Each structure stands twice: as structure tokens, then as C-alpha cells.
Amino acid sequence: MERLIPPVAPDEFKFAFMVAMAASAKKGPYVNPSNYGVNFRNDDTGEIVRYSPTDNALSRAALAVREQFEDSPKCASIMMRIHGMMDLIDDDRMKPYVRSGVNAPMEVRQEVLEVAAECEMSAVRGFDTHRFFSEVGQRFEPTSG
Length: 145
Prior knowledge:
The structure is a single chain. The protein is of the alpha+beta class and 145 residues long. The protein has one domain. The protein is 43% helix and 12% strand. It is built from five helices and six strands. It has helices at 10-24, 57-69, 73-87, 110-118, 129-139, and strands at residues 38-41, 48-51, 98-100, 106-108, 121-122, 126-127. The strands form three sheets. A two-stranded antiparallel ribbon has the order 1-2. The N and C termini lie far apart (42 Å).
């Protein structure tokens, strides 16, 4: 049986998305991902090598959400849902609901965030795009601009 990603309360998801977008744009407080990392020791030479995430928008967003929701199943669900929604950003059906942001890299209609919070999502396949956009269309009539 396919594992599904649990839904999230829409208000929590909207908050998490705003936190992620602000951190990705370096607006407000955010954690530098390169401050985190893992040390590996080479048993043969004794040399210690540190690997840490790159300070990029995705890493900042993920750490900011993790700080707000701790390392919990809810945090994992939020991150999977944000990632799943971002996979759909370049889909032509998303264009009426997304625009360049003023205080963040992009602004996404609230209806899209609500659907991303609640729509059935596979842990393997992500969102069913037909179902996702059908649910968005039921909540909102797209307009240009």
C-alpha cells in the first residue's frame, strides 16, 4: 500500500511557507545552513573532513521551517508538501496563481497553499497534478496579473 503524506492545517502550512520564502530571500532572521554539518574522520589518515550544506535558498528555507516546527512528523509533512508544491510551480496551470514577490521570491495565492496543505499526497509520486489543480480551481477562479 502506498504511503501518504499526512495533511497539515492550512494556517500552519501558510505560516510555514511564509517562513520558508522569507528565509530563502534572506528577509528577517534565518540560519546560515553552512553553520550545520557533519564531520567524518578518515580511519587511515586520521584526517577530519567537514561536510555542510551550501548556503542557498532551499537550505535556508528548510532550516527555517525546521526551527519553527522542530524535527517532527509535522515538520516532515510540511517540507514534503512545500517541495511537492514547488514541483508544480513551472506547470502552466499554476501560472494564474503565482507571481514574482515583493518581499519574497514569489507570491502564491492562498487557495493554492490551502490545497497544498490538505490535498492527498503520495510519499513517492507527490501530488496528483490533475487532482491538485482541480481542487485549486474549485476554490478559486484565476485572474491575470
